[in-house]
Amino acid sequence: MTLNALAAVTDLIGPQLAAVDAQFRQELTSDLKCVGTLVRHVGRFRGKMLRPCLLLLTARAVNPRAEPTADHVRLATVVEMVHMATLVHDDVLDEAELRRKGATINHLRGNEAAVLLGDYLISHSYHLCSGADDAAVGLPPQYASRLVARTTNRVCEGELLQLDNRNNLDLNEPTYLDIIARKTAALTAACCRLGAAFAGADAETADRMEEYGLALGTAFQIQDDILDLTGDPRDVGKTLGIDVEKGKLTLPLIHFLRTAPAEHRALLRSLLTEPNPDKAEKIRNLILPGDSLRYARDRARALVDRARSCLLDLPDTEARHALDAMAEFVVARAE
Amino acid sequence: MTLNALAAVTDLIGPQLAAVDAQFRQELTSDLKCVGTLVRHVGRFRGKMLRPCLLLLTARAVNPRAEPTADHVRLATVVEMVHMATLVHDDVLDEAELRRKGATINHLRGNEAAVLLGDYLISHSYHLCSGADDAAVGLPPQYASRLVARTTNRVCEGELLQLDNRNNLDLNEPTYLDIIARKTAALTAACCRLGAAFAGADAETADRMEEYGLALGTAFQIQDDILDLTGDPRDVGKTLGIDVEKGKLTLPLIHFLRTAPAEHRALLRSLLTEPNPDKAEKIRNLILPGDSLRYARDRARALVDRARSCLLDLPDTEARHALDAMAEFVVARAE
């Protein structure tokens, strides 16, 4: 996101983002000191608040006449908490040591604390969600609770499918896209649907905003996977090269294994399967000269364009422009 | 539970227990094959269905004129799923290899699969819970969802408090009781409250049933801790001696460290802190001759009596007798 676009977002939903931040902290207050210590640490992982921004901006974009409500703030806090829980458990799965330039919970306090803290965050997010007043905006009972739970189901399924395909060098592009649609894009899609539905959007608009979130989230994950391969850890602020270390095939590698000359493909296959201290660097050097990275970037770009096209029927407001800028930001970011 | 009492329970709530079993399986059906394999394996851990029994029997006991409803079955499935999720994550924390005479998920499929499967179970339980019709029985909106989420919060807090006290040889009895009230008894208490509330119980009866569940759950955990120390793994069907291996002080040990002769206490402290292949057996041989096990059994017995006293104002029905028998079963069981 350019500095200008970021400033526009802060102007548009600044008070609500501050309220999300306060609610996040307040909800996780515990009478137990040991819980407080862990929760404070996880607070440091919070960065762009992409998911709360998506939810709040969607609310404004579909209904420019009204400010986002207290339930929008509540649900924005819920999705941020769900996201934090998945980060904490992801770091356990990845044995990652670094997250947003700080030590991960598992690295600092052990896997046990990280497993439990993730559980604690997720159960708090459900508790907070179950306070939403669905009926007040004409939604069916427990609309938000059901949607959030269904979404976390999909996130878990995506993670399990990814785990099942570890070290599967024959992973194809449709399965890769299915994995990231579930594990990443399901949540951004839910953010946009919740923002729209709780702003009184009609069914068609809510569907289109969900589609925006799904395309944006998928592009986001492809970009994340590209950065894991090409990024500078000093910029990105987290352990890189994890995908290849963990036997996760991502889009550039899938493309390479499908299209590169036979001897290059054989080399990548042996690099991926054999233990090697410089595995990530060697793979990077093999991939960089070809067009597999460009292929992945093009796919992400096409998804960003699809996301942006979902906004065209919305009223021409600053909130819509901010959503447009967020879609661009997803592929422009270096971290 | 004696065979007679067990048969009585099956007669009383047999159809509902069968419905819980069917709903458990149906809810966890996934279009992903890899998810199905894991879910089928976790199905094998299911044993006594203590928590669904508590919920369904409470429903019958407080309102003998009506059968348990579809929402009772739904919520009984929810609590069983929550319980399964905690078992799966507990086995990760404990690095346990055996559960109900079968390999644990973490032992069989790795910690990653176990973390994700636990997440999958918990998110499914919330999804199922969010379908309960609270208004139909005059309860506030999302009564069940809030109660279940608040309960899982407490379970996580109990686990975190326990983790924070690993290898704390000065753990005192009140903190131990606080840990087990949260990590174990909060869920059995919630079962009884849900059973009562969804059967139309008044506030006072629901409170008393929650108290029954809390006392029963606390006694259950004390008995579990005693069995971890004294049980025969062939009977109990799970890895034993884990508590001392993992530096968890339980009631017999806490009592011993408070009351045994100074040289015995010093011996236990060194056994607990120093690496030793026969740690569990040596500790068992040190504890058995003293009165610390009896002290723990007496505490459990007093809690069972307190639980049973909560039933006295209920109508004299078979369901009440079954709840009475379940309280007895908690301390009588060898597995």
Write the layout of secondary structure elements.
The structure is a homodimer of 335-residue chains.
Chain A: H1 3-27, H2 33-43, H3 50-62, H4 70-94, E1 98-99, E2 102-103, H5 105-129, H6 143-164, H7 173-197, H8 203-230, H9 233-236, H10 242-245, H11 251-259, H12 262-273, H13 279-287, H14 292-309, H15 318-332
Antiparallel strand pairs in A: 1-2
Helix pairs in contact in A: 1-3, 1-4, 1-15, 3-4, 3-7, 3-15, 4-5, 4-6, 4-7, 6-7, 7-8, 8-14, 11-12, 11-14, 12-13, 14-15
C-alpha-based Rg of chain A, rounded: 20 Å
Q: Count of helical segments of chain A?
A: 15
How much of the sequence lies in strands of chain A comes to under 5%
- Work out the largest interface and the residue count of each chain: A-B, 44 and 44 residues
Label the structural class of chain A.
mainly alpha
Instruction: Write the CATH fold name of chain A.
Output: Farnesyl Diphosphate Synthase
Average the pLDDT over all residues of chain A and give the rounded result.
Answer: 90
CATH architecture of chain A: Orthogonal Bundle
- Subunit arrangement of the protein: homodimer
Strand order of the largest sheet of chain A: 1-2
DSSP, total strands of chain A: 2
- Extract low-pLDDT stretches of chain A: none
Highest-level CATH class of chain A: Mainly Alpha
Order of helices and strands of chain A: HHHHEEHHHHHHHHHHH
Distance between the termini of chain A: 11 Å
Under CATH, the homologous superfamily of chain A reads Farnesyl Diphosphate Synthase
How does the overall form of chain A come out from the CA principal axes?
globular
Indicate the percent of residues in helices of chain A.
Answer: over 70%
> What count of structural domains of chain A?
1
Report the biggest beta sheet of chain A as strand number plus sense, adding barrel if it closes. 2 strands, antiparallel
